[in-house]
Write a structure and sequence with these properties.
The complex is a heterotrimer of chains A (649), B (135) and C (338). Chain A is of the alpha/beta class and 649 residues long. Chain A has 17 helices and 34 strands. In chain A, 46% of the residues are buried. The mean pLDDT of chain A is 95. Chain B has 135 residues and is an all-alpha fold. In chain B, helix 2 packs across helix 8. The N and C termini of chain B lie far apart (35 Å). Chains in contact: A-B, A-C, B-C.
Chain lengths: 649, 135, 338
C-alpha cells in the first residue's frame, strides 16, 4: 500500500518562473498512490525540510518524491531529512524539474506538462524502490605513498604524524626527487638541500614510515579501505643491511656513464649513490653498465668492500603490503629537447634544458654553481633563455602552460647574473605568469636590479655558428627580427608526467588525461582525490606545479587520507548490481564490461558474483547481461519500464 | 594619432574575407612572433608577418593591403611549419594578395618585365611570378 | 616484392578492384606489358612528369636523372601528354580553377594505366602532391573538378601517388644498394646539400624532417662524397622573386652560399631548377654586389649520382651549369681521363 508524498520546490524563480508549481502539485495530488502533494519556495531550506519531516510523520508516508533540482545537488539532503524521521532514505526520490525542465524550456504550459510527466515517472520508480541498507566494510588504516619527491615526502610525513602507518615506495635509490636537483627555490631563494633534507631525514627515521627505496609498484588489487599491493624491490646488488655507506666501492669502480641526477652533464660510476645527503644513503649497481654484470669481469667493488656487502647474485624480490588508501605522487619529467627540430634536435651541447641549468647553478652541483658551459667549460658572457618550449604549442607538442618556467627562468637569470655580473641574460617570453605570493615582486627585481632583458616573442631557429649559438627570435613589441650570438641557450622545456605513469595508472585503475597527468575527481571541489575511491593525488603527477602548490596539495591529500582513516568502517552505497543466480547462465559478459573488476565468474557454479564493496553501480553489467540476471538495486528493468510507461501513457 | 578601434573594423567584411579565402581563424594567432622570427624575407618587409595578422585582427585593411610584406612573402612555408597554433600564414598572405589582385590591380605588370629577363629566367620562375603578382 | 599485375585488356571491374586493392595495400600496380619487360630482365617502369623547365634550362637535371635511374634499374617513362602543373599550389579556398592543371596531369598518369608518378622538380612535386592531397581529402572538390573537365575521357579518382625521385632512390632502391653500384666514389668532394622549401614544406607533403632533413646527405654519402652541414640548407632562396626583385634573391643566395662555403663546402647540391637558377646563375649578380664572393659550382643531385655510377660524363651536361663545375671535378680527378 503506497503512501507517497510529493514536495514541489520553486527554487525561488528558477523553477516557478517556467513551471506552474501550484498546478503541478494539484495534478499530482490525484495520482494513484499519492496521499499528499504540496509546493514551497525553498524545499532545501530548514523550514522546507521541517515541513517534509512533519508531513512524513503526520501522513505516515512510506515514500517521498521531491520535485526540485538535480539529484547531484540535494539527493543526500532530502534522504537525510526523511531518514531523521524514520523513513528508509532509499524510499526518497528526486524528480529533476530544474536542469531537465525549467532551465531548458521557455513555454510555461509545455514545461508544466513535462514536469508532471517527470514527477509521475519518478513516482512509478519509487513504488518499486526497496528499502536498502548501506554496506559496511572494515578499513585497513595504513597508507601507500607512490613517489618520494617532495609531494610524496610531505604526504607521508603528514599521514604518519597523524598516527597512521605509511609505506613509501620510491623507484630511485633515494627519496628527494627533482627538488634536490634544484639550485635555489623561488621567490625566496632558499636552498632546496637545506629545506628538503631535514624532511628526508625525518622520513628515514619516522617510526611510522616504512621506506621502500629502489622499488616499484607491481600490482594492486582490492578496493578502498582494503588494497593489496605487490611491490618489486629491485636488485641493487648491494646488501644494504651490511653496507656502511663508506663509499670505497664507488671510488674504485672504473666505469663512467652520464649521471642522471646531474642531468647527463657529468659522469657517475656504475655503482653509485644519487647525492651525498641521499636517504637511504646506500649505493646500487647499475646492471646495464657494470663491467662484471655485462662482461663478467672486474668485481673491483666487491674486492674493496670491507663490509662484504656486494652481492652479485641478488635478484628482484617482491613484498606485499595491505593498505587502505593510496597517494599517487609520481611527479614530472621535462620533455626531451631532441624533439624540437628547429632548436637543433638536441645536437648542440650548449643548448641545455632547465634542469641542466639548475645543476650548473647549484652550489653543490658539478660546477659548484658557476655555470661553465658543457662544450668547452667557458663561462657564458651572453646567455639566452627561451620560455614555452613545447608548452603552449597545440600544433606540435603540448597545449598547456607548464606553470613553473616563468619563475624559474627569472631565478636562473638572477643567479647567473650573481655569479657573472658582467654577463647579459636575455629571456624570450610570450606572457609572464607570476601568480604566486611574492612572485611578481621577484620578477620586477630581476628586471630592475639584475637588468635581465626580456624580449617578447618566440624563437624560430637555433644553429651553431663557430663556438656561438645563433638565436633567431623576434621582439614583437618593436616588430623586429632579433639575432643574438649566444654562448649558451637554456630551453624551458614543457613539464610532462614522469615516465611510465600511464602504465602505472592502468595498474591502479585510475584515470589520466591525454598527456598522462592524473585526473582529479572534480577540478574545483575534489582536487586531490581520484575518481576511483581510495586513491589520492599529490604534486605534479596531477599537473605542472611549483613547490608551494605541491606541498599544499600533498598535505591536502594526506588530510583526505586521515579523514578516511578516522572512520572505523566504510559505508558503501547499496545502489549496486546484484545477480539473480537462478537466471544467470554464466556467459561472462558482465565480467568483461566491468571497469572496476568487481565481478567474478564462479568457475564451479558458473554463476557471476558481484563484489559489493568494489561495485561502483555504473550499470554497465546490467546493460550487457543477455538473460536479465544482472539487476541494479532500485534501477531494475521493471522500474525502468514503469517509468517509460508513465511517460508514454 | 590614436588608432580608433570599433566594431566597424574588428567585425569588418575585410576580416571575414581574409578568413574565408585563407580558411584560417585569424583569432587563433596569439602573437608569439615565431613566424616573424624565422621569416627569411623579413629584412625586405615593411611590416612583419605577425604584425600583418595583428593588423587584420584590428581591421587595418588599408595598411595591410598597401604593405610590401604581402608581395615579398614567397610562400616558403617556414612559418607554416613552425607556427605553434597551426595558423597557415602563407594562406593568409595569399588571401591578402588575392584581395588586391581581384580588384584588377597587378603588382607586377607582365608587360613590364624586360625582354632580357624573360629569356633568362626559367619558366617555373615566370609562371609562378605571374601567378603570384598578377590577376 | 609482391607486384600487382594490371592487364590492359582485363574487364573494367577487375581493373577497378585491382586498383582498390593496390590503394589499400600500397602495392605498386605494374601494367601487364611492363611485367613482360620485367620478366625479360628489363627495368621497373614508372610514369615520369618532367615539367617545363626540365625540358629547357634544366636539361642537365633531366638527362642525368634519366640516365642514373636507368642504371639503377628504373625506367622513368615520360607521360605521353602533359601540361604545366602551374608551378605553385593555389592557396585560396575558392580558387579551384588553378587546381585543374595539376589534376589533369594526374589523369594523364591514369591514362597510362599507372598509379604512381615521379617528379624531379621540387615545385612540380609540391604542386602535384598538394593538389592531389586536396582532392583526396575533399570529395566535393574532386567532383567539381571532374565536372569542369567534362571533356576528359577518364575521371580522376584520387588514386595516383605522387613521388619525388629521391623517395624512390631511398625507399625502393636503397642507399646501400646505390653505394654498392658506385663505380667512381666522389672521394674528397666536399658538398653541401641545399633543400630549399618545397621538398620539405609544408610538412604534410614533405619528403623528410622539415627541420633536420637527411635524405640528400644520405644519398651523397652513398656516392662517397663528403657532406658539409650548414644552417642555411632549408632557408628559402627567394624563389620567383628572381623575376621582379633580383636584389632580394641576390642577398638570399649570397647568405646561403656564404654559409656553406664557410663550413668548407666546394659545391652545392640541390633538386630544384628555380633554386638552381637563383644559386647558380645569380652568382653573376652576387659577384657584382659582393666583391669578396668567389664562385661555387651548383649541382643537381642526379649529376653527381650519374658521375659516381660511372656513367658517361655527357649525360651530366655540365656545359649547362652556369658556374662550370668541371675544373673542380678535374681537380679531384673525378673527370678527365680517369
Amino acid at each position: 500500500m503506497n503512501r507517497i508524498g510529493v514536495f514541489v520546490c520553486h527554487c525561488g524563480l528558477n523553477i516557478a518562473q517556467t513551471v506552474d508549481v501550484e498546478k503541478l502539485a494539484n495534478i499530482i495530488s490525484d495520482y494513484p498512490g499519492v496521499v499528499y502533494a504540496t509546493n514551497y519556495i525553498y524545499m532545501c531550506s530548514d523550514p522546507g525540510q521541517d515541513m517534509i519531516k512533519e508531513i512524513v510523520k503526520e501522513k505516515k508516508l512510506n515514500g517521498v518524491v521531491v520535485a526540485c533540482c538535480s539529484p547531484t545537488m540535494h539527493e543526500t539532503t532530502f534522504r537525510n531529512t526523511v531518514a531523521s524521521v524514520g523513513l528508509n532514505p532509499y524510499r526518497c526520490e528526486i524528480a529533476n524539474i530544474r536542469e531537465q525542465c525549467s532551465w531548458v524550456h521557455k513555454d510555461k504550459k509545455i514545461a508544466t506538462e513535462k514536469a508532471v510527466e517527470i514527477v509521475k515517472a519518478t513516482i512509478e520508480k519509487l513504488k518499486l524502490d526497496k528499502s536498502l541498507i548501506p554496506l559496511s566494510v572494515p578499513i585497513t588504516k595504513r597508507a601507500l605513498v607512490i613517489g618520494g619527491g617532495i609531494a610524496g615526502i610531505q604526504a607521508s610525513l603528514d599521514i604518519a604524524d597523524s598516527g597512521y602507518e605509511v609505506v613509501l615506495v620510491e623507484r630511485n635509490q633515494s627519496i628527494g626527487g627533482h627538488m634536490l636537483q634544484l639550485s635555489e627555490t623561488f621567490p625566496t631563494l632558499d636552498c632546496p638541500q637545506c629545506i628538503a633534507t631535514p624532511k628526508m631525514v625525518q622520513v628515514g627515521q619516522h617510526p611510522k614510515i616504512k621506506l621502500l627505496a629502489y622499488s616499484e609498484v607491481e600490482e594492486v588489487s582490492g578496493y578502498v579501505g582494503n588494497f593489496k599491493v605487490k611491490i618489486r624491490r629491485k636488485a641493487s646488488f648491494v646488501d644494504w643491511n651490511k653496507c656502511t655507506g663508506c663509499g670505497l666501492c664507488v671510488e674504485k669502480c672504473p666505469v663512467r656513464v652520464p649521471s642522471e641526477f646531474n642531468e647527463l652533464l657529468v659522469k657517475r660510476k656504475a655503482i653509485y649513490t644519487l647525492f651525498p645527503q641521499a636517504v637511504p644513503n646506500k649505493p646500487v649497481i647499475d646492471s646495464n653498465n657494470c663491467l662484471y654484470l655485462t662482461k663478467g669481469k672486474c668485481r673491483a667493488c666487491e674486492k674493496n668492500c670491507l663490509a662484504k656487502a656486494i652481492d652479485f647474485n641478488q635478484k628482484d624480490t617482491f613484498v606485499e603490503e595491505d593498505v587502505g588508501a593510496i597517494v599517487v605522487a609520481t611527479g614530472y619529467d621535462l620533455m626531451d629537447k631532441a624533439e624540437i627540430g628547429e632548436y637543433g634536435a638536441g645536437k648542440y651541447k650548449d643548448v641545455i634544458n632547465g634542469l641542466q641549468m639548475e645543476r650548473l647553478l647549484c652550489p653543490s652541483g658539478p660546477t659548484e654553481g658557476i655555470p661553465h658551459r658543457p662544450s668547452d667549460g667557458k663561462i657564458p658572457k651572453e646567455i639566452v633563455f627561451i620560455q614555452c618550449v613545447g608548452s603552449r604549442d597545440p600544433e606540435h607538442y603540448y597545449p598547456y602552460c607548464s606553470k613553473v618556467c616563468c619563475m624559474y627562468v627569472v631565478k636562473q637569470a638572477m643567479l647567473y647574473k650573481n655569479v657573472v655580473p658582467d654577463g647579459q641574460a636575455y629571456v624570450f617570453y610570450m606572457d609572464i605568469r607570476c601568480d604566486g605570493k611574492g612572485y611578481e615582486e621577484f620578477l620586477q627585481k630581476g628586471m630592475e636590479e639584475n637588468k635581465i632583458l626580456y624580449l617578447r616573442g618566440r624563437v624560430s631557429k637555433l644553429f651553431k655558428d663557430g663556438d656561438k649559438i645563433k638565436v633567431w627570435g623576434a621582439d614583437t613589441l618593436t616588430g623586429r627580427k632579433i639575432e643574438i650570438s649566444a654562448d649558451m641557450v637554456v630551453l624551458a622545456m614543457a613539464v610532462v608526467p614522469s615516465k611510465g605513469v600511464k602504465e602505472l595508472a592502468r595498474k591502479l585503475r585510475i584515470t589520466a588525461d591525454d598527456y598522462g597527468f592524473l585526473t582529479e575527481a572534480h577540478p574545483k571541489l575534489r582536487p586531490v582525490e581520484s575518481l576511483t575511491a581510495g586513491y589520492f593525488l599529490a604534486g605534479a603527477a596531477q599537473g605542472p606545479k611549483d613547490i608551494p602548490d605541491v606541498v599544499a596539495q600533498a598535505s591536502g591529500a594526506a588530510s583526505k587520507v586521515d579523514s578516511l582513516f578516522s572512520q572505523d568502517v566504510l559505508y558503501h552505497e547499496p545502489i549496486i548490481a546484484s545477480v539473480d543466480e537462478e537466471v544467470c547462465v554464466g556467459c561472462g559478459n558482465c565480467v568483461d564490461v566491468c571497469a572496476y573488476d568487481a565481478i567474478e565468474l564462479d568457475l564451479r557454479t558458473k554463476k557471476a558474483k558481484v563484489n559489493s564493496a568494489v561495485c561502483e553501480g555504473c550499470g554497465a553489467c546490467c546493460a550487457a547481461c543477455p538473460s536479465g540476471a544482472m539487476q541494479h538495486n532500485n534501477f531494475s528493468k521493471r522500474q525502468i519500464f514503469e517509468m517509460v510507461d508513465a511517460f508514454v501513457r | 594619432m590614436r588608432a580608433e578601434i570599433s566594431i566597424k573594423n574588428t567585425k569588418s567584411k575585410f576580416l571575414d574575407k581574409v578568413e574565408e579565402l585563407s580558411e584560417q581563424n585569424i583569432y587563433a594567432c596569439y602573437q608569439c612572433g615565431k613566424c616573424s622570427a624565422g621569416c627569411p624575407s623579413i629584412s625586405e618587409m615593411d611590416i612583419s608577418p605577425s604584425e600583418i595578422i595583428r593588423l587584420v585582427q584590428l581591421g587595418g585593411e588599408e595598411e595591410v593591403l598597401n604593405s610590401k610584406t604581402i608581395w615579398v612573402c614567397a610562400s616558403c612555408f617556414t612559418c607554416v611549419t613552425r607556427c605553434p597554433k597551426g595558423v597557415d600564414v602563407a594562406k593568409i598572405m595569399e588571401a591578402l594578395r588575392q584581395i588586391t589582385l581581384r580588384k584588377n590591380v597587378d603588382y607586377v605588370n607582365p608587360l613590364s618585365i624586360p625582354r632580357e629577363t624573360l629569356s633568362q629566367v626559367p619558366q617555373i620562375a615566370l609562371v609562378s611570378a605571374l601567378r603570384k603578382f598578377s590577376g | 616484392m609482391l607486384l600487382l599485375v594490371l592487364s590492359s585488356i582485363g574487364e573494367k571491374a577487375v581493373r577497378n578492384s585491382t586498383k582498390e586493392f593496390a590503394q589499400l595495400t600500397h602495392l605498386p600496380i605494374i601494367p601487364f606489358t611492363h611485367l613482360l619487360d620485367l620478366m625479360k630482365g628489363v627495368k621497373m617502369k614508372i610514369s615520369y612528369f618532367p615539367g617545363c623547365t626540365l625540358k629547357t634550362m634544366a636539361k642537365n637535371f633531366e638527362d642525368s636523372a634519366l640516365a642514373s635511374a636507368s642504371s639503377l634499374g628504373i625506367e622513368m617513362v615520360e607521360l605521353q601528354r602533359w601540361n604545366c602543373c602551374g608551378t605553385v599550389y593555389s592557396l585560396t579556398s575558392d580558387d579551384l580553377i588553378h587546381q585543374l592543371a595539376p589534376i589533369r596531369d594526374l589523369i594523364r598518369v591514369e591514362e597510362q594505366k599507372d598509379n604512381r608518378v615521379v617528379t624531379l622538380c621540387s615545385m612540380c612535386y609540391n604542386t602535384l602532391k598538394r593538389a592531389n592531397k586536396l582532392v583526396q581529402e575533399d570529395k566535393e572538390k574532386l567532383d567539381k573538378l571532374n565536372d569542369l573537365m567534362y571533356r576528359e575521357d577518364v575521371k580522376y579518382d584520387g588514386k595516383v601517388k605522387v613521388l619525388h625521385l629521391l623517395e624512390i632512390l631511398k625507399n625502393e632502391i636503397g642507399f646501400e644498394q646505390i653505394a654498392r653500384k658506385v663505380k667512381i666514389p666522389l672521394k674528397g668532394l666536399k658538398v653541401a646539400p641545399y633543400y630549399g622549401c618545397l621538398l620539405l614544406r609544408p610538412p604534410e607533403v614533405g619528403i623528410d624532417d622539415p627541420e633536420n632533413p637527411t635524405i640528400l646527405e644520405n644519398l651523397l654519402e652513398s656516392t662517397g662524397a663528403e657532406v658539409i652541414d650548414y644552417p642555411y640548407k632549408t632557408e628559402c632562396c627567394g624563389s620567383y622573386n628572381t623575376v621582379a626583385n633580383v636584389d632580394l634573391v641576390v642577398e638570399r643566395a649570397y647568405n646561403i652560399l656564404r654559409s656553406a662555403i664557410n663550413q668548407g663546402a666546394e659545391a652545392i647540391v640541390l633538386s630544384c631548377p628555380l633554386c638552381g637558377f637563383n644559386l647558380d646563375n645569380r652568382q653573376k649578380e652576387i659577384k657584382e654586389k659582393f666583391s669578396d664572393f668567389k664562385n661555387i659550382p651548383i649541382f643537381y643531385f642526379t649529376q653527381l649520382l650519374a658521375l659516381s655510377l660511372g656513367l658517361d660524363e655527357k649525360v651530366c651536361r655540365f656545359e649547362l651549369n652556369f658556374v662550370d663545375p668541371r675544373p673542380l671535378l678535374e681537380s679531384k680527378h673525378l673527370i678527365g681521363g680517369v
